[in-house]
Amino acid sequence: MAEFKLKIPDMSCEHCEKRIREAVSKAGGRVKSLDLKSKEVVVDIEAEADKLLYIIGEAGHNAGLI
Fold first, then answer.
1. Would you tell me the crossing angle of helices 49-58 and 14-26 to the nearest 10 degrees?
2. Rounded to whole angstroms, how far apart are CA atoms 14 and 30?
3. pTM attached to this predicted model
4. Other CB atoms within 10 Å distance of the CB of residue 63
5. Which of 42, 43, 45, 48 shows the greatest Cβ crowding within 10 Å of its Cβ?
6. What distance in Å separates the CA atoms of residue 63 and residue 7, rounded to the nearest whole number?
């Protein structure tokens, strides 16, 4: 698995957190940490970075790699 650290500027609430966790899990990955205050997420997933960003986008959020 690869580890990615993401910045998700529009992530602001527990609903956002739930959607991101569900999307990553559905794609076979795992959220290692998620901080709503800093808007940062660390994910382990068997996917390329572009695929992960697409997965987060499909969950309704724009993300960038840190």
1. 130
2. 17
3. 0.92
4. 24
5. 43
6. 6
